[in-house]
Amino acid sequence: MSRAVVAIVGSPNVGKSTLFNRIVGERISIVEDTPGVTRDRIYANGTWLTRSFRLIDTGGIEVAGQDFGEQIKMQAEIAIEEADVIVFVANGREGMNADDQYVARMLQRSKKPVILAINKIDDQAFMNNIYEFYALGVGDPIAISSSHGIGIGDLLDKIIELLPEEVDDHVEGEIRFSLIGRPNVGKSSLTNAILGEERVIVSDIAGTTRDAVDTLFEKDGQKYRVVDTAGMRKKGKIYENIEKYSILRALSAIEKSDVILVLIDGDTGVIEQDRHVAGYAHEAGKGVVLVVNKWDLVTKDEKTMQKMEKKLREEFKYLDYAPIIFLSAKTHQRVQNIFSLIQMVYENNRKRVQTSVFNDVLIDAQAMNPTTSFNGGRLKIYYGNQVSICPPTFILFVNDPEYLHFSYKRYLENRIRDSFGFEGTPIHIIARKRD
Ligand code: GDP
Ligand code: GDP
């Protein structure tokens, strides 16, 4: 299931990021940040009432050297391309300006659902300021104050009302995977290498809502769907090189996939952007394979692969469960080996273990390495079970979750992995107080 996308647009200083933070801070549960991955917070997942969606602050997508006008145009284009619902923010203190009118015309043409939010209406005295915005022609303006938290609930209600119906597009027996990574790492080349040799069942089907182009193919009786990440590339090179935009595309693809191939350039090595992308793959709870591409360019001896692997394990500590494959999209070296990895990781991501066997493992783990005192008490685990898959999630019923030390949790995770083999998938362990 891929979540609907809500984008915030508007001129600088109207309060977009204040609104984003307000919505995120109060109403949205942000996914846990991965240690060692720093980033600007311009995307968040969340829920309001019964619906969940992704929120984007397009104001955070900037290109050095662009003037305000170009920036706003680009941000609005990205919002139109990506979002199901657009929140158009204007400044109720300063009144309508030329940028507002420009953006309004773009949004009108796009035919996307738009909510016009007039911000900085901190009290009733400014209420009359909102009326001039009717002239923008993008619907009734609603008054909000992002910094005071006024009107935010109504705004969220309106967002939910306009979100498209959720569709479960998962097809039984089909493995959906995507290739993510920074520009020029070889995503298109590897996609072509993968598809080149296989029977493509249907290609270039335009996706329903988001204009994505997925490709379905079959290999050894298994159906696969490659989720497209190209997005606005077709509209010009410029967007592709904006890091935040390419991460945004990657996030959409991750969301729609069962397995993520995180591409690294074997020739140039790991850079910060790779860590961002990989961090998102990890947080999504999907199966992950680390793919070192351009291996043909690397001058090798018998130790090179080992050394590179060691380095990658250091760079991506949080992905220690992910298998690594070294290949070349150009020469096709080892490209064939990717299918068995995708399949394995897919199966592990949806593996269920028996409760009785799981509890045996818990008992053995504690016998081998008893818990010690932490946070004023000693952890006692009564029993546990697996509550979900994708990723496999386990609940441990304990005397007090506060007593669970991070390192003991880590130890349990390792014991579980040793016993059940969850290679390629994150697993979640949640301690809960037994009533
Ligand atoms: P952005 O550039 O559109 O993301 O705008 P910011 O969120 O950075 O806000 C610009 C300025 O407007 C900041 O100084 C905010 O504190 C202020 N601001 C944002 N929302 C409100 C509001 O509801 N009322 C008032 N009075 N100021 C606000
Ligand atoms: P994308 O932006 O991630 O889709 O990257 P592309 O697939 O467009 O590749 C970027 C450049 O790297 C192109 O010039 C490719 O020919 C080159 N490239 C991709 N994979 C390999 C590889 O395995 N070996 C070599 N030598 N070049 C590659």
What this model shows, in words?
This protein has 435 residues and is of the alpha/beta class. It folds into 3 domains: 4-162, Rossmann fold (3-Layer(aba) Sandwich), CATH 3.40.50.300; 174-349, P-loop containing nucleotide triphosphate hydrolases (Rossmann fold, 3-Layer(aba) Sandwich); 355-433, K homology (KH) domain (GMP Synthetase, Chain A, domain 3, 2-Layer Sandwich), CATH 3.30.300.20. It contains 12 helices and 18 strands. It has helices spanning 16-27, 68-82, 98-110, 152-162, 187-196, 237-240, 243-256, 272-283, 304-315, 338-349, 355-368, 406-420, and strands at 4-9, 43-48, 51-57, 85-91, 114-119, 141-143, 174-180, 199-206, 213-219, 222-227, 259-265, 287-293, 324-326, 373-374, 377-378, 381-388, 393-398, 428-433. The strands form 4 sheets. Strands 8-9-10-7-11-12-13 form a 7-stranded mixed sheet, sandwiched between helices. It has a 6-stranded mixed sheet with strand order 2-3-1-4-5-6, sandwiched between helices. A hairpin with a 4-residue loop joins strand 16 and strand 17 (393-398). The longest helix has 15 residues, at 68-82. The two termini are 34 Å apart. The structure holds guanosine-5'-diphosphate (2 copies). One guanosine-5'-diphosphate (GDP) binds at residues 10, 12-18, 59, 119-120, 122, 145-148.
